[in-house]
Every structure is written in structure tokens, then in C-alpha cells.
Give the backbone structure.
Amino acid sequence: MCGRFAQVQTRADYLDVLASELEVASGQDSVPIGRYNVAPGTRVILLNQRDGKIYMDPVNWGYGPEWWLEMKRQPVINARVETAATSRMFKPLWNHGRALVMADGWYEWKKDKQDTKVKQPYFIYHKSKQPIFFAAIGRYHPDVAVPSDDDGFVILTAASDSGLLDIHDRRPVVLSPPAAREWIDPETTSSRAEELSTGAATPPDDFTWYPVGKSVGNIHNDNADLIKPIKHPLV
């Protein structure tokens, strides 16, 4: 799964890696976003394409359609890539709400096999140390002053493999820049999007990780110390 991540660099840094030839409609600046502990239920900069331009809109991380919320259920933050394209909840987002979450890495908690109450957070990032792009789907109205209750987005996840499986059995779907550009293109068909989210996803062996302090578990903590490695992990 993906329940916390870091979105630290400037908007321009992420756009440089995306390398899109499209005009960027949203403003760019040299100020780092500086979020080391992005948590569900907060508004996150979501990268999307519409009207032939690239936009970066703040959207709530978490989604539930109207019928879901009427059942008093909590918004969900992830969607399984194996079923998202055809499920009742996510199919409309898959067809018309594909987006990207810019990130520097994400956190997962590894559980002790003998005592599952003992958990150790790890920070996972690309071996190149380059920014990464999570495949996301969402529903939002950027031109409306007050967002609808059922606006929001989810991050797609896939089954872990290789060494990542030792940390957690699910991982976010990370797309390479070319695949990411195609993913958000409205002209990309839903079936092609399925191919991208599976066949073009960055493989687990391209990532590395290290243990970090437990302070990341508190959403009120948000500073560069959260992504510093520690020497003696619990697990």
C-alpha cells in the first residue's frame, strides 16, 4: 500500500524529470514543496493534463463516491491496479480522472514476524534518487471554489515482488516519465492505461530503502529528519 510519502522538491524539479513538451498552466516557482510526511486526508499537489496543458492542482488524498459516503464509509486512499479499471467505484475515475502524484519516495512499515505490534518504518526511493511519479486516479473540479464532498484521489497499488516484498506486500504503481506522460494524456484509451499501469510500471528492483525513525508515524511531524536513516531498526 502507500499511506505516507515525501513531496519535497520544487514543482520545476518534478516537471524537469517528467520532460513534457506541453505548456504548464499552473505556476512554477523555486520554492521547495517541502512536505516530508504527506498523509491521507490532506490536500496534495496532483499533476494532470487537460486542454492540452499540464496542471498542478491541490486535491484531497482520499476518495469515496456519493453512494459510498452515504453508507457512512471512510474515503479510501489506494486502489488495486488489478481491479480499478473495472470496479464500480473506480472505473469512472480510470476513464476520465487519471493523474500523477509527484514524490521523492514513500514510507512503509515492516512488521515483526513474531510480534505484529512491533513495526519499523522504512523510506523507499528510486536507486537513481530521481523524483518518481505514482499513478493516480481522481475526481475533482479545479474551477470550483468549494470542492465537492466526493472530490479526491487515490494512488494505484500493485503486488510487491523481489526485495520489496520483505517490507510490504503492496507497493504504489510508479511510472517512468514516458509512461507517466502517456498515462495522463486524455487521448490514451482505458485499455492502454491498463497496459501502462502493469507492463510499464517501474520494477521493484529499481528501488532501494533504509529504516527511518518512528517520528514519521505522527502526522504532525514534518521535517527533513524524517527521511534520515537510522542505524538500529526494530525490524
About this structure: The two ends are 18 Å apart (CA to CA).
